[in-house]
Amino acid sequence: ETGVTQTPRHLVMGMTNKKSLKCEQHLGHNAMYWYKQSAKKPLELMFVYSLEERVENNSVPSRFSPECPNSSHLFLHLHTLQPEDSALYLCASSQTRGASMGNTIYFGEGSWLTVV
Amino acid sequence: GDSVTQMEGPVTLSEEAFLTINCTYTATGYPSLFWYVQYPGEGLQLLLKATKADDKGSNKGFEATYRKETTSFHLEKGSVQVSDSAVYFCALSVRETSGSRLTFGEGTQLTVNP
After folding, report:
1. Could you give the 3-state DSSP secondary structure of residue B23?
2. How many CB pairs (< 8 A) connect A and B?
3. How many whole angstroms separate alpha carbon B52 and alpha carbon B50?
4. pLDDT number for residue A99
5. CA distance B60 to B21
6. pLDDT in tens, B40-59
7. Interface with B, mutate which of A54, A93, A100, A109 (most B CBs under 10 A)
């Protein structure tokens, strides 16, 4: 139990569906992240939120839409995805933005997404 | 840009064997270095970290030493167990510039057989 909870753990969706991934952190952190983990590729940072404000968006297609209503919750809204978007989506949080000098980033268990 | 190169997997060992997973990096600033572990079906967990040259991170019998002269952070364990079977990720973060991101290696799959 890392203090970061993701739901659902598994999701299968069609290319025309709209779905959302949810992340909740119970650690009192101020920064939250979405990462994408595809087979045989390095982890890719998608979005960073600090104090509920999006501070980084790494050229992610608009079919992925994040939302951070408060510092404890982070959503990833999905619409008109492609089969190549199938991956493990990892949510993470940290006390402040950044992963240096003891500011550890804690990861959730991930949501396995399959686009059919 | 910043990058992390890990030893290619998969790595298969027998129980009680010695483990080394190589990791080298390139960074524009002075990075902090991390090893994360991902057990089957789970997310990433921080295994150990080091924030300056010659620091040694250690946890659960794993160790890695921050070697600035060779830009390396190799993961070692003297005697692996079946329960160590997982994917191991080396990562870096640079304080001065891209402080908001971890740059990961591609991961190394470790399987330990009884």
Report:
1. strand
2. 68
3. 6
4. 62
5. 16
6. 878 888 999 998 899 999 99
7. A100
